[in-house]
Amino acid sequence: MKTDLAHIQRLARLDLALIFRNRSALTNAVLMPLAVAAFLVFTADQGGRDNVEFVLTGQIAGLLMFAPLVNLAGFYTSRREELVLKRLLGGPASAAAILGGSAAGATVVYLLQAFAVGVAAVVLGFGLPGNPLLVVVAALGGAAVFALLSMAISGVSASGELAQLATVPVMLICFVLSPVIVPPGAFPEPVQRVADFLPLTPVADLVRAGYGAAFDWSSPALLAAWVAVAAVLARRFFRWDPRRG
Amino acid sequence: MSTQTIEVDGLRQRYGDFEAVRGIGFSVGAGRLFALLGTNGAGKTTTMEVLEGFRPAASGSVRLLDADPYRDRRALRPRVGIMLQESGLIGDLTVAETVGLWRDLHADPLPADEALKKVDLTDRSGIAVRQLSGGQKRRLDLALAIVGRPEVLFLDEPTTGMDPEARIGTWRLIQELVAGGTTVLLTTHYLEEAERLADRIAIMHRGEIRVAGTVPEVVSGHGDRIAFRVPAHTPIDALPLLDGRPAEIAVTDGLPTARWTVSGGDPDGRAHRAVAALVAWAAERGVTLDRLSVRPASLEDVFLSIVESR
After folding, report:
1. Which of A12, A171, B70, B220 could be joined to A104 by an S-S link, Cβ 3.0–4.6 Å?
2. How far off is chain B from A169, nearest CA to CA, in Å?
3. Chain B residue closest to A4 (CA)?
4. Residues of B in contact with A240 (CB under 8 A)
């Protein structure tokens, strides 16, 4: 267990170094998501100050769609196809540590981005979250769900590019239907019922509860259920051997 | 407690309808090097992958360091070094960073400069892995396999893609490791590599071990080769029978050559007896045995006779 944690830390450091070394990974995983978040927050200005706060807090959830989902699914897949994962598995690190290392690296990127949004909230005069623990639970639980989903998506994708493509529908559905930029109640009843159960919905609800909105125990319960479902999917679909040949 | 470091008994492995390994068994003692030879698709890599713990044995038993390589992977992993047939290295890292990563994953690794020196990559340490040649990547992969001071080393075609100098350097390194007590299971296409390095070999074909033993044992079962140029004006049917068999005739340089493989009787004296009979025959006819050659079967002869059999 202790070695697993040491291995996760070392492999996460490796991934972070590689993300910051590779210009396209840096753009896709780190800079572009922040640019999208900034754009959404500034355009929300027209809807009034409440709307700015809604979109701003929504970004803490919405940023999960980038490093821990789109980017991570591509990372796992291209590494598997290049036999890097198998090479690592032949070494001293366990399967959980190898997958967990990359997930931890992506989570660190996401947490830095979420932290940047938190700083922006202070700068724009919305202050710090009244209950930061809820925000932390939302961020870490959400990162776990989407990292596990990215493992499952990687398992059914033949290349890193295809894996990233396969995450796009997940990203779009979550981004639009979960309460990230569009407030709940804006959709017709049947759509809203689906939206209520999406994995990003409890994350956004918990973040806002941390910033003073009403807290409901259904949010952490749904988030925990999604962690379990995503873990089952990851276990079922993830693979170590390349899909080619 | 088993006295053998590697023990395989009745191993079978299939992929869908294809039975890749069909009930093989062998064992390797501590500090020994065992080589698995065979054509592509013979089942060597599948056997290695079961021993390496990548997949469970479908049937039969497999033991590594007195443990189950699949179930006890967590405990075995730090004690085992693996070099896969195809390497998956991270192209964006330098050689030194790659070795540094693997050192950090191990509890008691070799010093980085020592690992690089052993595979002769010291002068490439600052180079990105993607810029290495195929043979250099193989050597780096070997460095990663040994950096954790493994007790058991799996080498799947380790010298493929290396130039002759690198290959000889790699052989020397493997010999040093074995002399230091490391147990090695090696697969190779190069018969010379097996002859040089292995204490024992097994030749696999279509999922089965067809022959196994030390190299002298394996070749002695395949007879001695005797040949000479057929003298002028000697009809083919006047040639003697050796070991009860007629000569095979091959044409080299436009002249017929008679060849026998003598495999009956005791392996130590059979070549002598056959040559004595030939010399007596030649004296009787008043001819000389031009270009007379006598040699034991080579590993290549054995290999080809197995691979060409149905």
Report:
1. A12
2. 29
3. B105
4. 54
* Whole-prediction pTM: 0.89
- Cα–Cα distance list, A135 to A204, A226, B67 (Å): 9, 17, 46
Q: Output phi, psi for A71, to 5 deg.
A: -70, -40
Searching chain A, which residue's CA lies closest to the CA of residue B106? A92
- The answer to whether residues A225 and A148 touch, using CB atoms and an 8 Å cutoff, is no
Domain boundaries defined on chain B: 4-213, 222-308
* Residue A200 near residue A174 (C-beta atoms within 8 A): yes
Q: How would you class B296 by CB atoms within 10 Å of its CB: exposed for 0-12, middle for 13-18, buried for 19 or more? A: middle
HEC secondary structure over A113-175: HHHHHHHHHHHCCCCCCCCHHHHHHHHHHHHHHHHHHHHHHHHCCCCHHHHHHHHHHHHHHHH
DSSP string of B22-48, one letter each residue: EEEEEEEETT-EEEEEE-TTSSHHHHH
**Residue B25 to residue A220: CA distance in whole angstroms:** 54
Q: Which residues of A touch B52 (CB under 8 A)?
A: 90
How do the pLDDT tens digits run along chain B, 310 residues long? 568 999 999 999 998 888 999 999 999 999 999 999 998 889 999 999 999 999 999 999 999 999 999 999 999 999 999 999 987 999 999 999 999 999 999 999 999 999 999 999 999 999 999 999 999 999 999 999 999 999 999 999 999 889 999 999 999 999 999 999 999 999 998 899 999 999 999 999 999 999 999 998 898 888 899 999 998 888 888 899 888 889 999 888 888 999 998 887 788 888 999 999 999 999 999 999 999 999 988 899 899 988 887 6
Q: Which of A87, A88, A244 to mutate to test the interface with B (most CBs of B within 10 A)?
A: A87
Please name the residue that has the structure tokens 């053998």: B4
Comparing CB atoms, the residue among A82, A83, A91 nearest residue B102 is A91
A92: enclosing H helix or E strand: none
Nearest to B87 among A7, A83, A94 (CB): A83
- Which segments of B39-168 are extended strands (E)? 59-64, 80-83, 152-156
Contact B88 A79 (CB under 8 A): yes
- Which candidate from A18, A89, A92 shows the least CB-CB separation from B78? A92
Q: Which amino acid is at B307?
A: V
Given a contact cutoff of 8 angstroms between Cβ atoms, the answer to whether B297 and B223 are in contact is yes
Contacts of B88 in chain A (CB under 8 A): 79, 82-88
| A101 close to A8: Cβ distance less than 8 angstroms | yes
Chain A's closest residue to B79, CA to CA, is: A92
**Nearest residue in A to B93, CA atom:** A18
Overall CATH class of domain B4-213: alpha beta
CB contact under 8 A, A90 and B84: yes
Print burial letters for B105-140: b (CB count within 10 Å at least 16), e (below 16): bbeebbebeebbebbbbeebbeeebeebeebbbbbb
Cα B44 to the chain's mean position, in Å?
10
- A95-123 helix and A72-81 helix, angle to the nearest 10 degrees: 150
